[in-house]
Amino acid sequence: MTLCNSCNRTGCRTCQPGTLGYWSQLDAAYAQALNRITSESRHAQGEWVFRMGQPSCGVYCVASGIVGMRKLHANGSGVLLGIAYPGALIGVPAFLRNDAHRTGAEALTDVRLCRLPGAELRRLLGEFPSLYPQLVRVCLDALDASQEAMLQSAAMSNRDRLFHLLQRLLEHCGQADDSGKLQARLPISREDIAGMLGVRQETLSRLLRRLSDDSLIEISGRHCRLLPPPELARQRACGDRFLQQRHAFRDFDDRHGARRREDVRWGGMT
Q1: What is the rounded CA–CA span in Å between residue 196 and residue 82?
Q2: How many other CB atoms are there within 10 angstroms of residue 256's CB atom?
Q3: Which domains occur in the chain, in start order?
Q4: What is the pLDDT of residues 7-20, one digit of tens each?
Q5: 3-state secondary structure 154-176
Q6: Which is nearest to 86 in space by CA: 59, 114, 58, 105?
Q7: In this predicted model, what pLDDT tens digit does every residue of 59-118 receive, in sequence order?
Q8: What is the Cα–Cα distance from 152 to 135, expressed in whole angstroms?
Q9: 3-class SS at 227?
């Protein structure tokens, strides 16, 4: 049986490469059927898993490494729309539409994928019709989780979104030094980071300086180092957000308190 996941267990039913374990909800018989058609696919950093406009070849689950989802424009420029971490499914929309990919998937690091070939998967769905709704549920759960992460990110400040992105990249790509601090050469460029955050590169430079001034990161070129251990970094970032909110409320109270005092003063003169 194919070793198809990053935790080195056998079979989709016991696959837990991330915190979600989408495939664990499949019935045992269906999971065994999927195991029979699942193959391992490896791609070196910089290689395309599939290109935008290429016909769908099936569904992929990221077992190890990270994959960037890119949208290319007619002039050759492009934008990094998102990053697929271990446990994520890619290629799902094109497979369900039986159409070409509307985004490309690039290996940002060396990656190992579990590949469900499209033709064999469709044949299997014909053989087991009741597998289809279960497979769709797995795919929709993965998409829902991705959208939920996007909503949570949208509620953050640009500073916090940047820190969250760097932290997650280092947790997947970095190595810990003797003091437990994570460091790595970032697998994406500053242009990609700015595009993902929706900010100009000048703004990104200011945000990086803020994180550095707050003793959360050290960065030089593409080399980044997370200064506190990951859990402490999360607490510190949350603590900074709390202080910012508290100062904002204090400023609001001061402004409105001064306005009320001014209203009383002018009211007493009329």
Answers
A1: 7
A2: 10
A3: 12-154 (2.60.120.10), 158-263 (1.10.10.10)
A4: 444 555 455 544 33
A5: HCCCHHHHHHHHHHHHHHHHCEE
A6: 114
A7: 998 988 999 999 987 777 788 988 998 888 899 889 988 999 999 999 999 999 989 999
A8: 26
A9: coil
